[in-house]
Design brief:
Elements: H1 7-12, H2 24-33, H3 38-47, E1 52-53, E2 59-60, H4 63-73, E3 84-85, H5 88-96, E4 106-110, E5 117-118, E6 132-136, E7 145-146, E8 160-163, E9 182-184, E10 206-208, E11 229-231, E12 253-255, E13 277-279, E14 301-303, E15 324-326, E16 346-348, E17 369-371, E18 392-394, E19 403-404, E20 413-415, E21 424-425, H6 427-434, E22 439-441, H7 450-466, E23 481-485, E24 490-493, E25 503-504, E26 510-514, E27 524-535, E28 542-555, E29 560-571, E30 577-587, E31 594-602, E32 606-617, H8 629-634, E33 644-648, H9 664-671, H10 676-699, H11 704-729
Parallel strand pairs: 3-4, 4-6, 5-7, 6-8, 8-9, 9-10, 10-11, 11-12, 12-13, 13-14, 14-15, 15-16, 16-17, 17-18, 18-20, 19-21, 20-22, 22-24
Antiparallel strand pairs: 1-2, 23-30, 23-33, 24-30, 25-32, 26-31, 27-30, 27-32, 28-29, 28-31
Helix pairs in contact: 6-7, 10-11
């Protein structure tokens, strides 16, 4: 059993306060400054399963364990003598009354559970041992705790200070924060953290003053020698960052997002040799970056989204560790030539109005995601094919783009919808599409050459033809069949189904047909789907939805198999376009003959005007409309590991051999253990017995037991009659 004094209880921290749900390293820092030994202590708690860590290294504890800890604390009947306080009524009672609370080490108060409360300036003088203070208000920015006469005192023992909507412009003048490790004061009324004579925050590692809209400056950072994280996001009155950053070497994260009055950054900021993340999103008045930006040798992430920056300094190429550069929405941005950035894997330049992409784009050999939508360039450098790691390319709304060159062979997603000036694509681009599993969206590219569209649709047919039989280990052994769906989706402008589509209609979202011409049995079917779609909405793009198709096959034996296939896409208003994708079905046990098939297409937020399917069976690959043997030989075999796998089941009584009890009627039919004639004889005998009993009851007075017995016989007869009907219905032999 745990007891109040045990190190196990104390090491967990404060239930529902800092520790539970927080980063493990941050918890260790706080506990270390509290005089514990966190490395050993947390390891012991993990070994005893008192706490666990999540995939993102956050500490967690079961609710029952948290409640047990609270129960241990509450063994002390008087709240002011407890070591931890979390009950809103108890906390307000102690804060508003002159009660000594020398034993309290931690307070956690959910401000949404209290009314507006006024505190005396001396409210915290009774908490000499207070080390953790948390006033949090997750649902509102309303100030609940008021200090109309100011605040004289905060415990110098504080390690963790968390106060949402702190109501004063300054911290108490007598507060000595030398032991403070973390300071959280979101949406506070702070105007300045301290003056020139402010005490040193010598142990502070984490400072979050986000949305403190009155904050105009932060003090000399030389007073924060251990500070690692500074969050000033949403401090809309902040006009400058201290130039004393040149004396600081431990800051790893600086967040200046939405500091709308910030007009410049000091050159000394580039002396932060440990800085890994720099964010000035929505700093609309920040028009430039320091020329020596490349001196930030540890920088990994640079976010300048929707800022006022017009030019990136050439020294950015010196950032050897940079892997994420986001300049989305920086209108009129001018890019330098790319000569470094060997580790850059994500580059976002959406909506920057860029007129020209540097010709040496291909030097970004680690690039995986490239977002160029909403720009004004006319072409993409041919060197892009050298970006061998590129898997996603976004060119949406590049309305001046006229030509697509050859793209990297590993590309998986290409979004180029609404490129209204796009006229042609290179032959190598088409060949590249043929040799890859690619989601490609060219919808609303209204000037795209129709021959290019036809060639792309032909490529999809060729890729369908290239699908070979899956290996046994890829199959769902528990199912009757396995459905493999690839993410390969083609969206192109147009209003007509491709000519090679085997079955299609001119109006509607469904079709059905018989397959009497396919007399051969097959254990492998490949299906291409095609739909002419349109958005129902009139003024916005529907993103993150899927076009789907439900199919049903009926075999010659009457068995029915239902399948489902879908692909995600964006719906663009006021435009028709063709969507094509494919899948493959492998039957696990035997070959079947399909008698008829039906398909229903649907899309949320949109309408399917026309639809079609194309079927290929394993016995007629020689009749798949592909006449060019050289093309066929050059096609790669699609990888089944890239496909989504779905088990399919017949809906009639096809019972697995290892599960004979699943359908007892079918088991009786196969083993001939019962015949209908046997049940007819039994029913005749029982009805005769009932009649005899009834005749006897007419001659003598019926006994209650006799009546009950007669009713039971009638019930058995009715049940057997129902069972007899079921056997006859399912074709049991006589």
């Amino acid at each position: 059993m745990l007891c109040l004094e045990s190190e196990d209880v104390r090491m967990v921290g404060i239930w529902g306060m800092p520790g539970i749900g927080e980063d493990e390293e941050r918890v260790k820092n706080i506990l270390d400054c509290c005089g514990f030994f966190p490395e050993i202590g947390i390891s012991c708690l993990l070994d005893k399963c008192l706490v666990t860590t999540t995939w993102n290294e956050k500490l967690q504890m079961h609710d029952l364990l948290q409640q047990m800890g609270k129960d241990i604390v509450c063994e002390e009947k008087k709240p002011r003598k407890r070591s931890r306080l979390w009950n809103a009524k108890d906390i307000c009672d102690i804060l508003t009354k002159e009660k000594v609370a020398e034993s309290v080490e931690a307070i956690s108060l959910d401000l949404s559970k209290i009314r507006k409360t006024e505190l005396y300036p001396s409210a915290f003088e009774k908490f000499d041992k207070l080390r953790l203070l948390k006033f949090y208000n997750p649902c509102s920015e309303e100030i609940k705790l008021h200090l109309p006469k100011g605040l004289k005192f905060l415990s110098n023992e504080l390690r963790f200070l968390y106060w949402d909507q702190y109501p004063l412009k300054y911290l108490p003048s007598k507060f000595c924060p030398e032991n403070l490790v973390e300071l959280h004061m979101q949406s506070s009324q702070l105007k300045q953290l301290g003056n020139k004579d402010a005490p040193c925050f010598e142990n502070l590692k984490f400072m979050d003053l986000s949305n403190s809209k009155q904050l105009i400056r932060i003090p000399d950072l030389s007073k924060f020698p251990k500070l690692e994280v500074i969050i000033l996001r949403g401090c809309t009155s902040l006009v400058e960052v201290s130039s004393s950053t040149k004396y600081h070497g431990k800051i790893i994260d600086l967040d200046l997002g939405k500091c709308s009055k910030l007009a410049s950054l000091p050159n000394s900021i580039c002396n932060l040799k440990s800085l890994k993340e720099l964010d000035f999103t929505d700093c609309v008045n920040l028009h430039g970056l320091p020329e020596n930006l490349g001196d930030l040798e540890s920088l990994v992430v640079l976010r300048a989204t929707r800022s006022g920056i017009k030019k990136l300094p050439s020294s950015i190429n010196q950032l050897k560790k940079l892997n994420n550069l986001d300049c989305e929405g920086c209108e009129g941005l001018i890019l330098p030539p790319f000569t470094g950035l060997a580790r850059l894997w994500r580059l976002s330049l959406k909506g920057c109005g860029i007129l020209e992409i540097p010709s040496n784009l291909g030097s970004l050999g680690s690039l995986v995601y490239l977002h160029l939508s909403g720009n004004n360039f006319r072409s993409i450098p041919t060197s892009i094919k050298q970006c061998s790691m590129l898997t996603s390319l976004d060119l949406r709304d590049c309305k001046r783009l006229q030509f697509l060159p050859e793209l990297p062979s590993g590309l998986v997603r290409l979004f180029a919808e609404n490129c209204t000036s796009l006229e042609s694509v290179s032959s190598s681009f088409i060949q590249g599409y043929m040799n890859s599993c690619l989601r490609m969206d060219l919808s609303k590219c209204i000037k795209l050459d129709q021959s290019a569209c036809s060639q792309l649709m032909e490529c999809l047919l060729l890729k369908l033809q290239s699908i070979g039989q899956p290996e046994e280990q890829c199959l769902d052994k528990e199912a009757d069949a396995t459905n493999f769906c690839w993410s390969d989706l083609l969206c192109i402008p147009g209003s007509e189904m491709p000519e090679w589509m085997m079955y299609k209609n001119d109006n509607g979202s469904s079709l059905s047909f018989s397959l009497t011409t396919h007399s051969h049995a097959s254990d492998f079917i490949k299906i291409a789907f095609c739909a002419l779609v349109e958005a129902n909405c009139s003024n916005f793009i529907l993103d993150g939805i899927s076009i789907s198709c439900e199919g049903r096959f009926v075999t010659e034996s009457g068995d029915s198999l239902e399948m489902y296939s879908n692909c995600p896409l964006n719906l663009i208003p006021k435009i028709h376009y063709i969507s094509l994708w494919y899948c493959a079905i492998r039957f696990n046990s035997k070959k079947i003959r399909i008698r008829e098939a039906s398909f229903q297409f649907f899309i949320p937020g949109g309408e399917v005007h026309k639809c079609g399917v194309h079927l290929m069976f394993d016995h007629n690959l020689e009749h798949d409309n592909v006449d060019d043997d050289s093309k066929r030989m050059s096609l790669p075999v699609l990888d089944y590991r890239q496909a989504m796998k779905q088990g399919l089941f017949f809906t009639q009584f096809l019972v697995a051999e290892d599960d004979p009890e699943q359908y007892p009627l079918q088991r009786l039919k196969e083993r001939h253990e019962f015949k209908v004639v046997d049940l007819n004889f039994s029913l005749s005998f029982l009805f005769t017995l009932v009649i005899c009993l009834a005749a006897t009851s007419d001659q003598t007075k019926a006994q209650p037991t006799q009546m009950i017995f007669t009713l039971m016989l009638i019930y058995v007869c009715m049940w057997l009659l129902s069972f007899n009907s079921s056997l006859s219905l399912h074709g049991m032999p006589n």
